[in-house]
């Protein structure tokens, strides 16, 4: 089978969500405050369904188990990546994610290293990214006293920025930001602070996970050293944001396509593609498939090469694991 796998998004309501997934991306989303589009996922909390071709109606996690040739016959038990689009109408909780070892012991799933490409950021937007505690004792004391103003690092952010968020990093997207998130396939989040918000459906404050947060936060915080590289090929621009060994679990690329180009898998055996804007085509084995904003697909390992054409803004990723 030599064809791309086009996927149907899954949407999740969030206390901090809004309606931009409808107004900016044209998705037919449910009523309410929709914060997350799970775009490419094999996770049980939001499974992606194939919309085209031989495997139409099947889910990514089932293909991973039953048609492993599509992914280069990998060793892992679960599809390792999860791609989301996030709409932060309000600020997310300040949170941290565990690494693989802690998550396996306590949550029975993968850890969660992730990254963000900022699709849109309103003027004055910022992230919580890291903390100012010098050691574990100071971290615990600042958390227990609620000294959030001194503990949390606020980082200004603008459209087009990229942030790599390894497990153990204190972080939060804040109000007015849309981001494409590439992450390990995990839904484990430890809330450190939630602005004392009350959930409208329960009438109660959302649970915090102070012990788990203190167990997993990296102290002291160190910004990862990224080697972001861009190259111009004709009218097209290709940017590599992260890849192994800096990012052991995934590589992430930004492709700005203006003229036809042939592409191949790079460090992985299959490639995840999300179209952020524009229109064009992907051509596989002489067959054209339409691309437009909001479309998500997997180019499987059974496809050696493909051509992109049109005017396209794409975030692509590959698994860093065998």
Kindly describe this structure.
It contains six helices and 21 strands. It has 322 residues and is mainly beta.
SSE map:
Layout: E1 5-8, E2 10-18, H1 20-23, E3 34-41, E4 49-50, H2 60-66, E5 81-88, E6 94-96, H3 100-106, E7 114-121, E8 126-131, H4 136-144, H5 148-151, E9 152-156, E10 162-165, E11 171-173, E12 177-184, E13 190-193, H6 210-216, E14 229-233, E15 236-242, E16 250-257, E17 261-264, E18 271-284, E19 287-292, E20 296-299, E21 305-319
Antiparallel strand pairs: 1-4, 1-20, 2-3, 3-5, 5-12, 6-13, 7-10, 7-12, 8-9, 8-11, 14-15, 15-16, 16-21, 17-21, 18-19, 18-20, 18-21
Unreliable stretches covering 5 or more consecutive residues? none
CATH architecture of the largest domain: Sandwich
Query: Structural class of the helices, strands and pairings?
Result: mainly beta
What is the chain-wise order of helices and strands? EEHEEHEEHEEHHEEEEEHEEEEEEEE
Question: CATH top level of the largest domain?
Answer: Mainly Beta
Q: What percent strand?
A: 35-45%
> Could you tell me the radius of gyration in angstroms?
20 Å
Q: Given the structure, what is the number of helices?
A: 6
**Overall 3D shape:** globular
Mean pLDDT across all amino acids = 97
Helix content: 10-25%
Q: Outline the biggest β-sheet.
A: 10 strands, antiparallel
- CATH topology of the largest domain, by name, is Jelly Rolls
Number of domains: 2
CATH superfamily of the largest domain: Jelly Rolls
Gap from first CA to last CA: 21 Å
| Number of extended strands | 21
């Amino acid at each position: 089978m030599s064809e791309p796998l086009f996927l149907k998004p899954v949407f999740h309501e969030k206390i901090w969500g809004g309606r931009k997934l409808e107004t900016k991306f044209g998705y037919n989303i449910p009523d309410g405050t929709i914060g997350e589009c799970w775009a490419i996922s094999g996770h049980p909390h939001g499974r992606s369904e194939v919309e085209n071709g031989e495997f139409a109606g099947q889910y990514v996690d089932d293909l991973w188990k039953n048609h492993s040739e599509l992914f280069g016959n990998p060793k892992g038990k679960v599809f390792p990546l999860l791609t989301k689009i996030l709409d932060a109408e309000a600020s997310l909780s300040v949170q941290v994610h565990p690494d693989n070892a802690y998550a396996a012991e306590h949550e029975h799933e993968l850890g969660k290293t992730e990254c963000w490409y900022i699709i849109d950021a309103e003027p004055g937007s910022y992230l919580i990214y890291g903390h100012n505690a010098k050691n574990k004792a100071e971290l615990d004391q600042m958390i227990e006293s609620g000294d959030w103003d001194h503990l949390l690092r606020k980082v200004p952010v603008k459209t087009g920025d990229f942030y790599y968020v390894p497990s153990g990093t204190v972080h939060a997207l804040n109000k007015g930001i849309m981001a494409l998130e590439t992450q390990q396939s995990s839904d484990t989040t430890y809330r450190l602070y939630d602005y004392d918000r009350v959930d409208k459906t329960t009438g109660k404050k959302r649970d915090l996970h102070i012990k788990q947060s203190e167990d997993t936060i990296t102290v002291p915080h160190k910004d990862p050293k990224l080697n972001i590289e861009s190259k111009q090929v004709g009218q097209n621009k290709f940017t590599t944001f992260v890849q192994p060994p800096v990012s052991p679990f995934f590589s992430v690329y930004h492709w700005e396509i203006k003229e036809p180009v042939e592409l191949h898998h790079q460090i992985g055996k299959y490639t995840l593609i999300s179209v952020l804007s524009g229109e064009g085509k992907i051509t596989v084995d002489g067959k054209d498939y339409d691309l437009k904003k909001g479309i998500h697909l997997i180019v499987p390992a059974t496809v050696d090469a493909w051509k992109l054409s049109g005017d396209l803004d794409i975030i692509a990723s590959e698994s860093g694991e065998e």
